[in-house]
From TrEMBL:
Pfam families: YbbR (PF07949). It comes from Streptococcus minor. This is YbbR-like domain-containing protein. InterPro entries: c-di-AMP_regulator (IPR053154), YbbR (IPR012505).
Length: 235
């Protein structure tokens, strides 16, 4: 009887030892496999996205901003190519670039851009990283619209006899300093040259100072109709 119990005890011990050895080997292989995977660097990819719009936050009723670039270049970096492609496409992307001007007063400022709502595992580099912007007190004033065709747009030997525009006056909005520099508002055509006959079409409005420099403003309307009578010069 004692021999029988002894055999059963030895068999049970052997089974327990075999189980422990199996468990140890399995755990060791798993840890080694995990360490190998963790030690192998993941391949990363970079997608460059051009002309990403900047969401600028400011008090638009009190201030007028100018002198800034409205877009930025974003390098998206990550290991998941599908997510990168989704963020590259404007229709499916989740991230946005923001500039917060709400705590700033008038003057020219350099503001650090922020990237928000990036997917997990994706990083972003911006070019440029800062936004240069001029902030001024918002102001508006009405100006008479004057039609203008430049001499360089006329064919040789021709001149402008008369110009009429449909819009007589327009409301111009800018910062106080810029608005004070506005000398006149011109209606101009930019897509014609060598004019030798009468013109009827659409003209774009622009505000210029006394030296003819175009100023950053917003109009109550951006375009108007224009008619110009072109005549041949007499010899």
């Amino acid at each position: 009887m004692n021999d029988k119990f002894r055999m059963i005890g030895q068999l049970g011990a052997s089974i327990l030892i075999a189980f422990l050895l199996f468990f140890y080997a399995t755990t060791t292989n798993y840890k080694n496999s995990t360490n190998i995977n963790q030690s192998q660097p993941k391949e990363t990819y970079t997608n460059t996205v051009n002309n990403v719009p900047i969401n600028i936050e400011y008090d638009s009723e009190k201030y007028f901003i100018s002198g800034f670039s409205s877009t930025v270049t974003v390098d998206l970096i990550g290991s998941n190519r599908l997510i990168l492609q989704r963020e590259t496409d404007e229709a499916t992307r989740s991230f946005q670039v923001k500039a917060n001007l709400r705590d700033l007063d008038t003057g020219t400022h350099l503001v650090k851009l922020q990237v928000l709502d990036l997917p997990t595992g994706v990083n972003a580099n911006l070019t440029p990283v800062n936004l240069s912007v001029k902030i001024g007190k918002r102001a508006s004033k009405n100006f008479t619209v004057v039609g203008n065709i430049y001499d360089t747009q006329l064919a040789v030997g021709y001149s402008v006899s008369k110009i009429t525009v449909e819009t007589e006056t327009v409301k111009v909005t800018s910062d106080e300093e810029t608005l004070a520099r506005v000398d006149r508002v011109e209606a101009v055509i930019t897509d014609v040259s060598d004019l030798s006959q009468n013109y009827t079409g659409t003209a774009t409005l622009q505000a210029v100072d006394a030296q003819g420099q175009i100023l950053p403003v917003v109009f109550s309307q951006e375009v108007t109709s224009m008619q110009a009578t072109i005549i041949k010069n007499k010899n």
